[in-house]
Write a structure and sequence with these properties.
With 215 residues, the protein is mainly alpha-helical. 55% of the residues lie in helices and 10% in strands. The longest helix is centred in the first third of the chain and has 32 residues, at 10-41.
Length: 215
């Protein structure tokens, strides 16, 4: 009894390739946009308040980088991981995808925690009033921490896409990768009899100028 192996369905292979391309484009867009949002947000004003000094209330503001430097650092890590996804394969790609997702989750967590962190303004209040125990009053925060958290969510989504579809994504060409196999040596060309200097050089190297074998 003969068993006939079913040929692969070209339609399913085409659909799989199309799905891989879409997920790749979406991951690149989400990762790049999320990192840009996180980096931009940390340069903006995150919180504001007032400090009581001799002349009255003194306004204070704090940028995201004053509150915490973690989102900006993780955004750079996320960008590096997004690029590294295409430079590695198999287990390496899985590890880099996990790092990408964790970078996004870390940005989200630290940005949301930053909405309740008034330590940066307290330090400014202590300097402005000259009292080391002084704290900021009328503490409020802006929408920029949430923008940073949204950027982290996009990076997290890029990492999840890499974990789910990364196996079907292309990798950097292995054309220039060395596998340890010795490369064949090119055969020496016979010396041109019309050029005596080439014949003398061949003899110095221990070669037969006629190309028949070692001298």
């Amino acid at each position: 009894m003969e068993y006939v192996t079913a040929a692969p369905d070209p339609r399913s292979e085409t659909a799989s390739a199309r799905s891989g391309r879409r997920s790749l484009a979406l991951a690149l867009l989400c990762g790049a946009l999320g990192a840009a949002m996180a980096l931009l947000s940390t340069r903006q004003r995150w919180s504001q308040g007032t400090a009581t000094v001799a002349g009255g209330a003194f306004p204070l503001t704090a940028r995201g980088s004053d509150v915490t430097g973690v989102p900006a650092a993780l955004a750079i890590v996320g960008l590096a991981a997004l690029v590294a996804v295409f430079a590695v394969r198999r287990t390496g790609r899985l590890a880099v995808s996990v790092l990408l997702a964790l970078s996004g989750a870390g940005i989200m967590a630290t940005a949301l925690i930053g909405t309740r962190d008034g330590s940066a303004l307290d330090e400014q209040a202590a300097k402005a009033s000259g009292d080391t125990s002084a704290t900021v009053a009328s503490f409020t925060h802006t929408a920029w921490p949430y923008a940073a958290a949204a950027g982290g969510a996009l990076i997290l989504l890029a990492g999840l896409l890499a974990l789910r579809y990364g196996r079907s994504w292309p990798a950097m060409s292995g054309r220039y990768e060395r596998d340890g196999t010795p490369r064949p040596r090119r055969a020496a060309r016979p010396a041109d009899p019309d050029r005596p200097e080439e014949m003398w050089k061949a003899l110095d190297r221990g070669e037969d100028p006629t190309g028949a074998g070692p001298a």
